[in-house]
Design brief:
This protein is mainly α. The chain has one domain: 434 Repressor (Amino-terminal Domain). It is about 65% helix and about 0% strand. It has five helices and no strands. α2 crosses α3. It is globular, with a radius of gyration of 10 Å. It comes from Alkalibacterium olivapovliticus. Keywords: DNA-binding.
Length: about 70
């Protein structure tokens, strides 16, 4: 599963909208949408904020497997 789909799945598991996640990590909904589409690579700081809100680890959400 790609990191884009893992983010979307983790967000959906908490029944959280893109807008709610964006508000929680202090970015726009468009930023979350772009990350989920694979059009934007977030900074490590943003990755950490997203993981904290979704209660997952960086490896769970963003680790790219070969």
């Amino acid at each position: 599963m790609t990191k884009n789909l893992r983010l979307k799945a983790a967000r959906a598991k908490l029944d959280m909208s893109q807008h709610e996640l964006a508000d929680a990590v202090d970015v726009t909904r468009q930023t979350i949408s772009a990350i989920e589409r694979g059009d934007y690579n977030p900074s490590i700081k943003l990755c950490i904020r997203i993981c904290k809100v979704l209660n997952v680890t960086l490896n769970d959400l963003f680790w790219e497997e070969n």
